[in-house]
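Example 3.2
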Amino acid sequence: MTETVKLIAFPGAPNLPIFVAQEKDWFTKHGIDLNITMTPSSAYQAEALAKGEFDIAGTAFDNVVAYTEGQGAVALPETPDFFAFIGATQIELAIVAQPDLKSVGDLSGKSLALDAPGTGFAFVFYHMLEKGGVTPGSYERVAVGATPQRWESVKAGQHAATMTIEPFTSIGRAQGFNILAKSTDTLPDYQGGIFAARRSWAAQNRSKLVGFIRAYLDGLEWTLDPANKDEATQVLLRNMPEIKPPVAGAVMASLLSPKSGLTPKGAVTIDGIRAVLDLRTRYGKPGSSLTDPHKYVDLSYYNDAVKG
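Structure, written as tokens:
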């Protein structure tokens, strides 16, 4: 007998362990009937998760922090009880720009596509821009949505640049767009992607959450095994048809890199969390100081899954 779990995630190669676990029936093995939906934006995802329309979100760790601190992209009726229960990626974010733009400095005065200006990976973008000499306020910030929408807006010439994850970074490079900077060059430890839920839902559905974690960890372990790389690439191509074979190698290299990709064993790193909190303190609500890395995480469900 299986129990339904509704997952809402961002489109991207980091979903590969989920795709693997689905194709190999490992969710079923652990008692889960997984329904997965790709979100059009972080705002939609947060509202839907808060309303209980979805049980779990594959999202940026910063989104958990933002909504917990009342700094989310949209105002929710009440402060949500979001928490992260397992890590997903360190993540490598890249600034992808129009072919005529050659450096980060060229983005001054330009229109830049974001998911939401005050959540997710926006602060990584601001950090990378500032490192490249582009000061806050010297560019236009436009909320466009999740990575596919942002990439398409740059591809269509509507915006000068955006921030991407794989496979969109490699797709952009292959189509002649410039990669101006990568987050791993300036943020060597950053807690990027995680899975989150509402504390109230998790407390009432412990077996579902533990089953989800076990299936995900099975998919993750298999994906990270070098012996499975070729088959894993085929799983990714089947589930993300926008990835074409010529760029699949670059996508997999980034995804499997311990520097930029999937986090072995679904680890959550304290140093990575501190990097997220530091960026939100610098670029978020003026006067806020976020210093407690344990406030947004509960690993008890993960520990139960691993012990089981």
